Amino acid sequence: MLNIDWYIEFKNQEGKRFQLALLGECEIISSVDNLADTATIVLPEAVMNEPLNFENKIGRGTEVTIRLGYDENLEDEFSGYIQDITNNDSSLKILCEDALFLFRVGVPDVELKPTSLSQIAQHVIDNIDSSFTVNCDYTVSYEKFTIHQATGYDVLKKIQEETKANIYFDTKNKVLHIHPPYIEKGGEVFYSMQKNIEESSLEFKNKLDTKVEVTIETTDINGNVKKVVSGTTGGDKITLKVRTMDEASMQKIADNEARRATAPGYEGSFDTWLIPFCAPTYSARIKDEDYPDKTAYYYVKSVTTTLSESGGVRTITPGIKLS
Length: 323
What we know:
323 residues, mainly beta, Phage tail protein beta-alpha-beta fold, 3 domains, 13-stranded mixed β-sheet, 3-stranded mixed β-sheet, 3 helices, 29 strands, flat, Late control protein
């Protein structure tokens, strides 16, 4: 029998480290649809009638490392910073965010033209924390991109909304990643409905009859409206307005959106244990002996990992079918 195990460490701005000695609950949320991974650490407000006092040890901006697993075999699950500490319902909650926390500060106003996703990201990095690097393989180009009274978070959020890129921070290695949606491949993991899936709300959608017509629209630097279309004429219409960019980049976005909307895959989620480790971008092979024709690899969209008195649970949301 495996015994649940965990390790949570704080490092404050003076460089002092503190290891958490008790834990009520921990939840980590990671998704390709979110810019940031988040973690919530829940502690009792008092132990043996003595209140917990962290005021002189940790606070906003304190670094956090969370490792979870069984029998001292731990995986790095989260690295980030404390956003806030709250008291309610007889408990103390420590709210954490990954390196996006550092980028919620202003960047200088600038008009970049022409420019690319990697150049925009590099501008954000250079003006907030140049110790980070950019890993970008999504070749989307803007004729003009204006930053005005915006934070680093605002800029990254805008390009995610417009391009549907998978944008996230590798906090531990100080890397800002920008990749095309549903293309980047993480590790591989294997699940069976009969062996290591505890509960499931999965419903397979083959989408054979799903038709979409995706339109990407922009206004160029001369004030002319440009449009590109992908998908099936007459299908359900999806329209996305973007800043001034070239038609090739607009076509990439349209094609990616049409592919995502019509690709077969699962809706819903399933619960499993902490092992095997799984994260968004992983390829999950899901097998159901009752429906062997549905056995395939699926793109993992999001993972919520929870540890409590009841044990460790990963709730995994798969997306499009890969193969």
